[in-house]
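Long-time lurker. I teach an intro course on protein structure, and each term I like to show students one example going from raw sequence to a predicted 3D structure in token notation. This year I'd like something fresh instead of my usual example. Would anyone be willing to generate the tokens for the chain below so I can use it in lecture? Attribution to the forum is fine with me.
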Amino acid sequence: MSLIILVAEILGVISAVDAVMKTRTSQGAIAWAVSLVTFPYVAVPLYWVLGRSEFHGYVQAHRIADLALDPAIEESVAVLEQYVLERPPGPYPAAAAERLAAIPTTHANSVQLLVDGEETFASIEEGIASAQEYILFQFFIVKDDELGRRLQQALIAKAREGVRVSFLYDEVGSHALPRRYKDELREAGAEVYNFHTRQGPRNRFQINFRNHRKVVVVDGRTAWVGGHNVGDEYMGKSPKFGYWRDTHVRIDGPAVLAAQLSFVEDWNWATGRLPQVDWVPDPAPDGADMPVLILPTGPADEFESAALMFTHAISSARERIWIASPYFVPDEGIMSALQLAALRGVDVRILIPDVADHMLVYLAAFTYFDDARKAGVQFYKYTGGFLHQKAVLIDDLAAGVGTANFDNRSFRLNFEITALVGDPGFIDEVDRMFESDFAQSRIVGPDEYSGRPFWFRLAARVARLTAPIQ
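-- Reply from a regular --
Happy to contribute to a lecture. Here you go:
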């Protein structure tokens, strides 16, 4: 028994050193190190399953994919260059975002704002029906319910027509998706794979990473990106939540190729090969000229791209920064950026749900209210149903819609994707969307956290301690 105790303590110390050296945030490193040394029997296995901060293998697969894609992409570079947005003289606000994306902002795009499930999936189904060559279909959650079966049958119909269908899902998010659902797609000729987070000898216990992206691409001409997953609750049919507030965008134009590249890299990781796709950019058919930057982010990036994206947006704001997210668990750097923005007179508003779907992140959010409110940050809690959208509005310069939540998981552990749009008409539309949501929300008051009973405040503080692995 003494030998077992000694081995556990040694493993705890070794793991604590590893956590201090590799964990990306100081609070995460401290939390893991203390737990590993104090409770090694429980903390050591948890750390090696949940404590990883680097996604091994994807970077190498990404580089191999880039080499394989070079000939195809080189053919379209000359055509794409005419759609790259010309930088104005002087400081360029989007420069940092473009470097994070490793993709330029393009113009000649058309972007349609899709509010809630009915509008979103009607648009996606219309796109699927119009496909002539291929469909790239990727979601974090796919359910075998009314909506899931409807989309499955639409994909099966196109596959039987000879359209190439590539179906990618996250094995954790879609853990309940039955084999029958996938087999029926395969029998029709579709290729179906999970993201396969744990492949490779170093990744057997790599289950804390998720591919949270939701991307649909049709024929390389049209793409959909946003917060909806495939499930009846996203159509407002949840018995628990009722109305489900979410947002997607449809994109036509050269920016579609950036969304397609994100899918192709994920597909290459999951399958070890590249799908057959078209890399020739086309301008939006309606003649629109919207600037769009597609920003994929994830744990395989050189930088913490999602966290830096939000920090850059907050730091760049001069008049307003409005953020909508179902979860609000920022790190210290982003929290400081929000406070500084409010202190310099920026209208900082955070829109979050008034009801919880994940209790830990719901409780943790309460602990940030008082410090943020002191600086002038305003919190709105949406009361019209469950708010699941991920959107940001920066002055009158840019609006973003995507998959990234305002929490550590999206900042550091999830693969995400965001569409940033710099068109005045689209920004006005997002402005009206936010105002409508604020009108269906309540403003968080000074007693929202401090006025709660002790047991609630204690639970919230404990929940905040788990933020690095939420």
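Some talking points for your students: Residues 144 and 181 are 7 Å apart (CA to CA). The chain is about 45% helix and 20% strand.
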